[in-house]
Amino acid sequence: MLQHGNSSPIEPESVPVSQSYRGPFGRLFRSLPAYEPDGKTEEQKQKNLEKLAADMVDDRRASWSNNRIPAGYAFFGQVLAHDMSFDLTSVNMRHTDPGRVQNFRTPRLDLDHIYGGGPWMQPTLYERANDNDPAPFLFRIDELSYRKGKKRWKEEDVPHLDRRNARSCVPVMADPRNATHLITSELHLAILKFHNRALRDLNDPGNKRAGSNPQDMSPLERFREAVRLTQWHYQWVIVHDFLERLVGTRTVTDLLAGKVERVFHWKNTPYIPIEFSAGAYRVGHAMLGGSYRLNGDKDRELGLYDLLGVRRRGRGRRVRYVPTNRHQRTMIAWRYLVPVEGQPRPQESAIFQPRFARELAKLPTQLSPDGDETSLVERDLIRSWKLGLPSGQSIAKALGYRVSDSRHEPLLVYLLKEAAREGRRGRQLGPVGGRLVAEVILGLLEGDPTSYLHLDPEWRPQFDHDRRRGFDLCAFLRHARMPMTDDELPWNL
Length: 493
Hints:
By secondary structure, this protein is α+β, with helices and mostly antiparallel strands. Helix content is 32%, strand content 10%. It has a single domain (12-492), classed as Haem peroxidase domain superfamily, animal type (Myeloperoxidase, subunit C).
């Protein structure tokens, strides 16, 4: 039986090791001039961007009309963002060369923000093998017991320290950003449970579904296989569900078939282009709404601060955010966020347009690296300017697209207007936005020597799923045994 501390050493290539990775961002369009806002001084330019950001904030509740992208995919996209990059620089920085900005994530979609350094570098993420469950390398998952009257039930959650105190209830994660929001925290939990189920299947001599001859594998080989199965099914969902919804099936198919001349190239290993991370991928913020219903409790629609686990108190300069007990919260029945066979339609994300939910105009100070209560939209625009991103019009021309408006705009603004105009009325990204997002995500996968697109492009998911719809986010969550309907919530079982 393997124990932490006396187990045989595991090679670094077994799982991603983000702790040892640090690399620069880069540019796709090095020859294009940087976009400059109106104004003679730096202060005037920043004020104009702040005004532009304020003008794009409105009440989004009437705009939840994107029947192509259910609400849950906006948060899945956030989990992907945490997987691809981790940038510690402040929005208050001076103008910066992206080559000097360090990315503390591997530029891959390999779940390094879940696995961390592996059981040998971050043993607190993993269970110790014991007589009740002799499989080593399972993720730790907290089991919480609740009682209301005569009814008792148990809930699973990501592991935390000191649950009795809301202020010091710290999540045990390789990347704590996944815990800043209830929905992304539950997606993190789903990935932990998917891995654990894959590993338990491999340790079951009578279960042939998870791999060929698992009984002939060592515990270390089973762990590696569970990592591969989790990564590849996650990557399949990214390519054939998330990305196809975001940019359109044809864009993905043409790029995979080599029908489009790409602009994302690298010499040895891929990098994260700043036009993607600080520009094109930020369109995901426009998909967010102000509040969500997570289960059948009709009186319980959670707003932004509820989902973030904080309460806003005070006004003006005296405003402060008080942590709440995150575990006195509504559990998610996922059919409210993703399509589930035989269930009513889920809530929809907002259409792509240069408008943002009013709730995004004030970031809680806990989520701001600078400790300020600022607008997320404002931060996106100022950051792209200080990193020297070209205008959306310049990039569109460089990609060979006709530009009808000669006025130069920030890349984010241009892509949202383009989507509203040319992306099925805002239901998917337009040609420039779709191209940038799809090229980079597919390029990162193709350049990753461990991904299914690199090792076995003909691979297909092997776990149960709806054959008509394919293996999608719903199938991933269902295989992880997350509650999909109200009847599957623990207090109803």
